[in-house]
Input
Amino acid sequence: MKRALITGITGQDGAYLSKLLIDKGYKVFGTVRRSTSEKFVNLKYLNVYNKIKFYDFDLLELSNIQNVIKETKPHEIYNLAAQSFVPTSFQVPIVTTDINSLGTLRILDSINSINKKIKFYQASTSEMFGKVAQIPQSENTPFYPRSPYGVSKIFSHWITINYRESYNIHASSGILFNHESPLRGSEFVTKKITSTLTRIKYGSKETLRVGNINAKRDWGFAGDYVYAMWLMLQKKNPDDFVISTGKTHSVRQFIDLTLSYLKFDYKWVGKGMNERVVNKEDGKTIMKIDKEFFRPAEVDLLIGNPSKAKRQLKWKPKTSLKQLVKLMVDYDENQIKNA
Ligand code: NAP
Ligand code: GDD
Output
């Protein structure tokens, strides 16, 4: 039986990857940071919670990482743990760097000293392209990060390549573009939009407050993307791959798609910071712009070129943005109905 160790198993990708690996017959070990609140909602939702063995773990603690690797003896390690929210990285840049950059190095160095045969997956990101040097972005596009998060992930990306080249470790980086799902953290823009607008549709009096609605992202479905992670570790040789849909949409378009799916009768009014969405049925403002949600430096446009992954991994995205919005809103509606 193959054994996989997943760091960050309580997050969005951790849940979908656990499900995929358990369905493939893996024994899955998951790492969890101690907390006083419930962390296993995602894993319980996908019915995998009882099939996983959990370990207390923090990417900040080298001896803890080494002990978990020695105990679980994994064939594959998927390093999904990170301080993953870009705005928080401006608030706590040093902690973000310690977790995201040095955390990755701590795992790689542990693999190197404990068992070089362990295969390693690093969760790299399109945030590394930042102020993009090319459109679309591929594995060869130069990086120009725009946040401490982006900078920290470039270190982890390159240290993964360095350990692969220096010590012959099967270490791969997936440069994943934004991927979303019903299990997406509530502070990320897609989930914030679908959950808030759904609550408003069901009678909540709140207003959706967002920042830069002109930012464009290449959004895919997390369930499709974790399959690419697994494919990378099954390849004979380790490598780096862009995983994306090849299509880009603005936050504004995502709001439109959600409003349409929820069958709002609405209109956009105003300009710039005063732009808002009004519900034509009762004249109330459903969405407005709030400067609180703008960032010190923005990534304006992301669009990935997934041809290498299509060619070499035989991977392609299966879920359109419209289907993704439906998945997310349907889940949000069920949450309200079952509350
Ligand atoms: P997520 O939902 O934010 O999950 C992050 C996970 O990391 C959580 O389980 C979190 O645990 C854990 N974690 C945070 N700090 C830790 C620490 N010091 N020690 C151990 N665990 C820690 O992220 P995601 O969306 O699933 O993304 C997975 C990975 O892919 C991340 O590395 C992210 O940066 C990267 N990525 C994501 C996307 C995307 O669009 N989703 C795109 C490209 C790359 P707690 O529950 O304790 O906080
Ligand atoms: N979160 C948030 N909240 N973002 C907003 C808002 C808002 O109210 N209003 C506008 N945005 C814009 C942001 O400025 C950004 O341009 C875009 O929406 C997407 O923001 P997020 O959903 O927070 O994602 P992200 O692109 O910053 O980062 C995500 O994707 C990266 C891959 O490119 C995260 O998952 C990262 O961990 C991941 O690496």
